[in-house]
Structure formats: structure tokens, C-alpha cells
Specification:
This protein folds into two domains: 186 residues, Cupredoxins -  blue copper proteins (Immunoglobulin-like, Sandwich), CATH 2.60.40.420; 89 residues, Immunoglobulin-like (Sandwich), CATH 2.60.40.420. The protein contains nine helices and twelve strands. The strands form three sheets. It has a five-stranded mixed sheet with strand order 3-2-1-5-8. Strands 4-10-9-6-7 form a five-stranded mixed sheet, covered by helices on one side. Strands 11-12 form a two-stranded antiparallel sheet. The N and C termini lie far apart (59 Å).
């Protein structure tokens, strides 16, 4: 008995890894629950089939065999029984595959069904970050952010997924299934978060050398908290409130930074890079690579190619004073 308990410990340790903030088995919305049930259903059926095959194989290996004087001689009753067994196995296999196909189709089809009251968010996948635009019928209410998707608890979110350069794949396993972002094609995905919290997502399609560093966060908030956040995001960037931030603003506008990034409320209107209007209020920078602090902002600006080789941000020459000023300015954009 003690040996049996000890043998179960490695399995329990592995199962513990299935319950974290990026796990399809840690479901927090109806879409994720449906996918989890589909996974459990398929695994359970396959386990039963495997067990039956093992029982049949063990029986065939251990049963006593009669001696045949003529090995090539056929036994009609035995052949008839084997024909029944093989026919039943083929029929069961056909039924199981058909059931798997139908359940998978209906489950995944439900992930793209949208309603008129859904929150619509356009997601663009780029090498290697996520552009997040909140769209709606009123253009004045739209705004853009990057690498973070805030959603209200209990409301369906309709994602419009587009790829700008290569194929990416949007995957937030605790909330929804995977969906590809393909250049020239619009794909859709719908999910709902039933519980407030922070859920990690990841690009699930190899998209280049920094594929592993292309993460995002889905932050589910109570509806009132989400509306406050959205209103703050719609506002232009805050004015520099201290000398260091003001100096950083001037450096940012004078350098190439303003040609690649947008900061609403300033003359910076570049589009190749992420919108930085409220970058200081985001939890991470560089698509989940670093926590957002003044130090990490300075490190990223100073040498982005060392931290994330191959990304499209060039090295902008800055003096130490300019670097400190720019990092102070960006950290103040909340």
C-alpha cells in the first residue's frame, strides 16, 4: 500500500502543473469550460479504448492454446467469431470518430458566435507584440493599447483577429481556445470571463525567433472598474508634471521615437510600434518580457536588441541624461 501511494506522487506532481494561470484545465469562462469538457471527454474515451485493447492483448498472450495438427487448417466457428469481433471493432471505431468529429465541430463553432451587445476588440499580431484596439459604432469612443486586454466580467468579448506580417495564434487557455491570425484574413473568436482576475495568453504559432516572448495579459474586471479603465484610456496622455518628465517629453519628440510610436495628445503619431499613450499604467512591456518600471523602460530603450534580439525597434542613441529623462516620461504616462 505504501509503495502504491509513493508511485502516485509523480503523477500528482504533474497534475499540479495543470492548474496555473495559463492552463486549459483552469477554466474561467463558458468557452474554456466547453473546451475543457471536450478534452476530458476525448481523453476518457481514448483511455477506455486503450484499456480494452490492453485487456484483449493480455488475454491473447496468456490464454491456453490448443494444439493444431494442421496449422493451415481453418476452424469455421473460430473464424466466424473473429469476424464478429473485427466487425464490431471497426463499427465502434467509426462511431467513436464520428462522435469526436461532431462534438469538436459544435464546440469550436460556438467559440465564434457573436451578439450585438458584445464588446468588440480588434487584435493585430505583429513580430513580436499585440496591438489591441477597442472598437465600436462611435469612433470617438475608440482607443488603442498594446499587449493587455481588459474585459468586463460577465460580458461576451468578440475578438477580430488579424495578422500583419506572419501567421500568429491567439491563445488564452483559461478563457478561450486557439485561433490563428493570418495576414489578409479576418478570423473571429468570442469568450467571456466569469471571474475577475489576470489570465496569461501566448502566441501559439511559431512566428519567428522571439515567438516565445510574445505573451499578453487578459485582465478581467468588474464592469464598473472596466468602464473607469476604459475612460482613462480614451483620455490623451497626461502632461509632464515634473522637470525630468518634461525633459523626457522633449527628448522623445526630438528623436526617432515619435516617428514609430503614438502618444495621443502630443505630436507623436507613429504607427510601426505600440501606442504608448498610457504605457506607464501597463503591467508589462515588450509583450510580457519585463515588468513595467522606470528601470525596465530605461533598459529596453537603451538596448532593445540585447533583451529581445530581432525585434523591429532600432537602437536610438541617447546620452545617460536623455535616457533617464525619457524613462521618467514614459513611466509617468498612466
Amino acid at each position: 500500500m505504501r509503495l502504491a501511494r509513493v508511485s502516485l506522487l509523480p503523477a500528482c506532481t504533474l497534475l499540479a502543473g495543470c492548474n496555473n494561470w495559463q492552463s486549459a484545465l483552469n477554466a474561467h469562462g463558458p468557452s474554456a469550460v466547453s473546451l475543457k469538457q471536450l478534452i476530458i471527454f476525448i481523453v476518457a474515451i481514448c483511455s477506455i479504448v486503450w484499456a480494452l485493447v490492453m485487456v484483449a492483448m493480455i488475454h491473447a498472450l496468456w490464454r491456453r492454446r490448443g494444439e493444431w495438427r494442421q496449422p493451415t487448417e481453418l476452424a469455421p466457428p473460430r473464424e466466424r467469431r473473429m469476424s464478429y469481433v473485427v466487425s464490431a471493432a471497426v463499427g465502434a471505431t467509426t462511431i467513436i470518430i464520428a462522435v469526436f468529429t461532431l462534438t469538436s465541430f459544435f464546440t469550436t463553432h460556438a467559440l465564434t458566435v457573436a451578439g450585438p451587445d458584445d464588446l468588440t476588440v480588434r487584435i493585430r499580431g505583429l513580430q513580436w507584440w499585440w496591438s489591441v484596439e477597442y472598437v465600436g459604432p462611435d469612433p470617438s469612443r475608440r482607443f488603442e493599447t498594446a499587449n493587455e486586454i481588459h474585459v468586463p466580467v460577465g460580458r461576451n468579448v468578440h475578438l477580430l483577429l488579424e495578422g500583419d506580417d506572419v501567421i500568429h495564434s491567439f491563445w488564452a487557455p483559461s478563457l478561450a481556445g486557439k485561433q490563428d491570425l493570418i495576414p489578409g484574413r479576418l478570423n473571429e473568436l468570442t469568450f467571456r470571463a466569469d471571474h475577475a482576475g489576470t489570465y496569461r495568453g501566448q502566441c501559439a504559432e511559431f512566428c519567428g525567433m522571439q515567438h516565445a516572448h510574445m505573451a499578453f495579459l487578459v485582465i478581467a474586471e468588474e464592469p464598473a472598474d472596466f468602464e473607469r479603465w476604459a475612460e482613462a484610456q480614451r483620455a490623451p496622455a497626461a502632461q509632464a508634471s515634473d522637470e525630468a518628465s518634461a525633459a523626457g517629453h522633449d527628448v522623445f519628440m526630438a528623436k526617432a521615437c515619435a516617428g514609430c510610436h503614438t502618444i495621443r495628445g502630443t505630436k507623436a503619431a507613429g504607427t510601426p510600434g505600440p501606442d504608448l499613450t498610457h504605457v506607464g499604467g501597463r503591467r508589462t512591456i515588450a509583450a510580457g518580457l519585463l515588468e513595467t518600471t522606470r528601470g525596465s523602460l530605461a533598459a529596453w530603450i537603451a538596448d532593445p536588441q540585447t533583451l529581445k534580439p530581432g525585434n523591429n525597434m532600432p537602437l536610438v542613441p541617447l546620452t545617460p541624461d536623455e535616457l533617464r529623462a525619457v524613462s521618467a516620461y514614459l513611466a509617468s504616462l498612466k
